[in-house]
Amino acid sequence: MHHTEPSSLGSALPPTAPERTDELLRRSAELIFQQAHLAVACAEEALALSRAAGDLPRTALSALRLGNATSVSGDEARAATLVEEALALYRQLGDPSGEAGALLSLSTITRNLGQLLPGLQCALQGLAAARSQGLRSLECGCLSNIGLVYTDLGDYQKALEAFLDALPIARAAGASENEALCLTNLGDVCSRAGQPKRALEHYQAALDINRAMADTHRQIDTLCGMGLAHLQLGQPVPALRLFQEALEMAAAADDHKCDARLLTGLGDAHVVQGQPEQARAAYEQAQQLAAQARAPQEEVAALRQLGALALAQQDSAGALEHLNRALTLAAACQAPREQQEIYALLSAAERLRGHFEAALAHYQQHHQLERDLNSRQALHRTQALMLEVDIAQARQAAEVQRQINARLTEVNEQLATANEQKAQLLARLQEQAQHLVRLSQEDALTGLANRRHFNEQFETEVQRAARYLRPLSVVLLDIDHFKAVNDTYSHQVGDLVLRELAGLLQAGCRQTDLVARFGGEEFVLLLPETPYADALVVCERLRRCVEQHAWAAVQSGLQVTISLGVAAGSGLNTSQLLALADSQLYQAKRSGRNRVCGELAGPPPPGSGENVREAS
Predict the structure, then answer these.
(1) Quick check: 285 and 277 in contact, CB under 8 A?
(2) How far, in Å, CA of 487 to CA of 510, rounded?
(3) Are strands 562-568 and 522-528 parallel, antiparallel or unpaired?
(4) Which band of pLDDT confidence, cut at 50, 70 and 90, is reported for residue 604?
(5) Which of 152, 86, 169 has its CA nearest to residue 113?
(6) Helix 17-31 vs helix 36-53: angle between axes, to the nearest 10 degrees?
(7) Model's pTM, two decimal places?
(8) Residues ≥6 apart with Cβ < 8 Å to 154
(9) Crossing angle of helices 336-352/356-417, nearest 10°?
């Protein structure tokens, strides 16, 4: 074996473990979107080196980089474990910047795993951490992830708000990559919301930035979005051109999953242009590449489109073959939305060949999945709102505690030098602490109880009602078309409406009732000792009171109404009662607004019908 002796003149010393780790992490970051498998290998070596050296900061960064690279390569479960390790290490190190970055990555990964609410929670926590440290790039990323979760939940208004909040941050920071990402996300949500022309404007702006940065990966995403938007507009020719351009770029990156997605879009364009044979060839190639890349959702999409194409050509046997394969794959990868679409096509295929019983069974499966998905989406929206409010109030409570602690520290320092002022300073501190405690229980705008205080009282009243078999009702209500009030008259008038409504609700309830602001334009009423029938009477009285109120005194031309959802019944916990009230509020909205809807779940407590209440 040949040995080379180190020279004392001009020879480079071998890198130390930290230097080698830093170089591997740099390479992993460079390769993550071009060659994900190499990025994973570099990050794995970096993690092994940093762990062996007991270097906690580099171990945290290596675990984070490896988690991100593993996510891009498609192993989301392993990615989540790695990023959770990084998050725990950053918290142990007291590194809020690292914590914010880990929370951003974890929100992306959990969303990819279909865990929307945990993804939203991580993004909201990351947003708070990024803002506390002035980390504008991470703030922009967390806002984008919040928008993506709301897009998945079908709440396109909230998604647009998040993306539009992120866009000026990216521009002000000169972060072209983040700006392009925000614009692409805006294009996606506009496309989903049925506004393809607006989507194309955002996509084109994103594409210009991505081309200037020579970012191939994001150019492909943007070109794909533009192609789909042109298909929404019934314009297959530009769609074909865009998909072809993206396919040429993806071929160079050797990304079969991306190729499969683009080929499915290309097939859709051929269908719109009346070229079924070219469409079939594109779908078949997409299905083969997706199977090769182990991308089941892309394979499901290709098989579903092959089935739809066969169905359009009256080929029921071919349609059933493709659709049944697609259904099996969709069930295996837990994709209920795709299953719902496939059942509808299966129903049509069975009807085409005269098997009406099978067609009916498939249609019933389609309809059941549709109902389940809609119910789940509504529940998730409610939970997302509650999560946002809870996190905001937790931050408020933490800030209150910080103020109390800061004041205690200040007082202790003063006591060390001025012991004679002890009694006076302690009395002042106690008064301020009591004031801060009141602030932590009170909504600043309306003066009503806030969500945190309501939760405490709600749990107590539910337990009391269960223990003593007493009636209890809960009401969720909000202002109809409140956004229009803000848009027409200004947010200042909107705040006046919220305060005026708070006064009307307080005046229309007893002192033993609790009126709280739930969040935004939503309020909640807790009505102890109130049977369901009496709660409906109270709510109808409040509804009429609001409708007949002299709103013109607040603003000329203003008219305000509310919708209310009532829930009552024994054997339900707080979450079940609140979810029931929310579903009834949704029913009131869907039924035309300015009305009361309610539901009594289970038998009323014994003797509850004898308990007739009167408003104070």
Answers:
(1) no
(2) 34
(3) unpaired
(4) low
(5) 152
(6) 160
(7) 0.54
(8) 377, 381
(9) 170
